[in-house]
Design goal:
Elements lengths: L1 E2 L6 E2 L11 H37 L4 E5 H6 L9 E4 L5 E5 L2 E7 L5 E7 L1
Antiparallel strand pairs: 1-2, 3-7, 4-5, 5-6, 6-7
């Protein structure tokens, strides 16, 4: 006897790898997992698009700008929503949001600044 990974009822597996007592429990678990994953992807996509829109609005045709992190956060900026990162020759980590790159730095006054560039 083995507990079902979904409903926790005891069942006799037909084979050694069986995790669920029925195809219904297996389907429900798959649906829950997909819903959770799609929710994560949806949240990331919304954050990524929000960051892109913020950058579009504040850059206003400029190639580079430096702003305080707290100012961007008030606009809804999420520094975790980017799709790639790279390290430049000075060792700074840059994050990519479409044609924008941003780097978070702490200046000499211990203020967190965000450098944004457009490629």
């Amino acid at each position: 006897m083995k507990p079902c990974n979904r409903c926790h009822s005891e069942f006799s597996p037909a084979h050694g790898n069986q995790q669920y007592c029925s195809s219904k429990c297996k389907s429900l678990q798959k649906a829950d997992t997909q819903k959770k994953l799609y929710g994560i992807i949806k949240d990331f996509r919304m954050g990524f698009l929000k960051n892109y829109k913020i950058f579009e609005a504040i850059m206003n045709g400029e190639r580079q700008k430096t702003l305080p992190l707290h100012h961007l956060e008030k606009l809804g900026f999420n520094y975790n929503c980017f799709y790639a990162e790279f390290e430049d020759t000075q060792g700074s980590i840059w994050n990519i949001v479409a044609e924008y790159r941003f780097c978070i730095k702490v200046n000499c006054k211990s203020e967190t600044q965000v450098i944004i560039t457009k490629q």
